[in-house]
Design goal:
Elements: H1 11-74, H2 78-88, H3 92-107
Length: 111
């Protein structure tokens, strides 16, 4: 264990510090590479979560619109029901259409 005249630290301690510094400098590039890779994975993960969230929002919107349209078509108001009945009865054109329907139905084959 030799002690240099210009340094107060023994040679073996200075050597271990130098080895530690070299190891730290040598590992820095791999640590930075790992950090960049982790950032890339995190960004891809966030973008995929965003895409799934947008897709889910569009699916919910489509489901809502479909439900409202089905409800609108399925639920007739009393005025609409009366209008359909009045259109089919009480005038000459409706009577002629009804006669044509009956004539066509009489020619249709019975199952």
């Amino acid at each position: 264990m030799a002690i240099d005249g210009t340094s107060s630290l023994p040679d073996d301690i200075r050597e271990s510090i130098a080895i530690g510094n070299v190891k730290s400098v040598a590992e820095q590039s791999s640590m930075l590479s790992n950090l960049a890779y982790a950032n890339l994975i995190s960004n891809v993960n966030l973008s995929q979560q965003n895409a799934v969230s947008n897709q889910q929002a569009m699916n919910q919107l489509g489901l809502t619109v479909t439900g409202k349209v089905v409800n609108l078509v399925a639920n007739l108001s009393p005025m609409e029901a009366v209008a359909v009945v009045k259109m089919d009865t009480g005038n000459d054109i409706a009577q002629q259409l009804s006669d044509i329907k009956g004539t066509l139905a009489s020619f249709a084959p019975t199952p």
